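Repro case for the chain-ordering regression, as requested:
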Amino acid sequence: MSQDPKAMVKEAEVPAGYETVHAKSPVFYDSYERKAELKNQTHYCPGCGHGVAHKLIAEAIEDLGLQNRTIFVSPVGCSVFAYYYFDVGNVQAAHGRAPACATAIKRTCPEKIVISYQGDGDLAAIGTAEIVHAANRGEKIAVFFVNNAIYGMTGGQMAPTTLVGQKSTTSPWGRRPVNEGYPLHMAELLSTLEAPAYVERVALCDNKNIMKARRAIRRALENQRDGVGFSFVEILSPCPTIWGKEPVDARRWVLEKLVPAFPLNVFRDRKLDTSPGAMPPQRTVTDVLEISAKNESAQRVAVQHPHHFREYTIKVAGFGG
Amino acid sequence: MRQLCKGNVAIVKGAILAGCRSFYGYPITPASEIAEAAALYIPQVGGTFLQAESEVAAINMVYGAAAAGARVMTASSGPGLSLMQEGISYIAGAELPCVIVDVVRGGPGLGNIAPEQSDYFAMVKGGGHGNYHNLVLAPASVQEIADLTTLAFELADKYRNPAIVLADGFIGQMMEPLELEYREIAPPGKPWAVKGTPETQKNLISSIYLEPDDLEAHQRKLEAKYKRAQQTEPRWELYDTDDADILLVGYGITSRILRSAVEAARSQGQRVGLFRPITLWPFPSEALAKAASTVREVLVVELSNGQMVEDVRLALNGKVPVEFYGRTGGNVPSVEEIHADVLARMSALFEREMLGRMMPVQ
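-- result from build under test --
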């Protein structure tokens, strides 16, 4: 009998007559302590694609042995609380800014695995600039883009990926291209750039496609492990609650409506041979700051900030344009 | 070794001395030389410089780098700082240390590229959403812009809070002698950071607290931190205040003009002094109240329509009349202009006093 309190909680939560068939990946916390309540289940709706996407990512992290060197950036949207679940380093970012945040995390910790997980409003509307430029710089991060063609967290408003004719609370008569334009194809858009190493679109609509998504997610993380470059996986995902569909019907809707509008494809899979360019010379701080070297060995002096006025003459230099 | 250095370049030198090896920024006049100097120097000492696609991206890169434990900074001017305000609010909420430089230009809107001090409210009063404060330092010389940038990093780490260096187009653009002293910097350990290591795996950097009680507790914690800073961090400078009838109050470049005005007045026997806040948040309210306790009038001078003057009035709480003199649009008051204004106020003061003496007691 286990004395581990976490294990006991887990055991107690399994209702009578049920048994655990699939073990939870150790990349997920045993109990979701950061949640206020229901610490053994996620906050996602039944049938939501986020749960499947989370599981595929967790299993890939586990299988590749990356758990203790992964930093996961949670976005704004339904997956704002992804850090409830992933037992890795967690940073929560502002709406749309996860790629900028992930950029600097990766550049601060180049050896670590940095994941930006974003929804369609986050990545394709408010954060369009950040994702395009992170991709264009070839940041060595993995971006998982969950596209369900709707704003889930805020209650069903139109997304940049909402289909033509699809109703939402802010396109109550259906999306009209004449008013709202067309669905944005992020995988295609990013694959026009030079720098990305890997761009694929997958769909969580049936087991076969979920297995393809599994491979794509794994590939993106392998790329990062191997320092290959920017990897982007767009995941077409069901949102039964906001779509007003039963979970099974929602999956069918992904296959029948989303997939024809957002074709599944590997849009990019290559390693770019890039020259590092002219590297900056490495110099000492004293050299760069033009401080005489004899001071270099001096011990640190308690800073007496010279807040006294000095006898200076002001020279105003010209302004730029 | 003394060197002739531009203010904007001195910022980067002060930052490197403070151990800063990360700069994320976007060009804007009159702050562009900061990004240029960072691009030139920081990679040479093994650091990271990245020109972001916007100030919005830049401040969120600062958020990411700070979350991973880096000593990191960005720099911009008014319009860029407006774009950064959301990110600064997140940084304050997530308690991340970083340094942000605002080389203030004329506003509102596109305004112009000439110096103003019109970002006081935006930087000192918060500017972004929610309950938070920035630590704000106001340099008055090229030497001080370097020194205060170094200090800003120390304060940012001490309080896990954004620290702002609030300069203006003059300080940023002018060249003055600069003397730097090499110091061994031992950046503090940051056990709260998310570094992708087993030890930091449990850490979370976030500003979201969904439960009302949790968010209130978080804000109380921030409030306690701000109180600590208010008790220990105010910095200021006094100049000829002991016997002053009129106390001038000004920060940054304006204080340099005011100091000359004090000298001009003193040379003619007029008793005028100067109070210069160095920290704008926390504002040196107690010190100002003390310095103003024996004066008959306070005159606040700013390159704005009157922003810091509100904090001066709060600090003095009606005990002394507080008057305001401001120039904007890139116009700068001359020493003679200020001296003439002070003279007029002096004679008005004495006239009122004489009248008071002549009035029969009812």
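Ordering looks correct now. Chain B has a mean pLDDT of 96.
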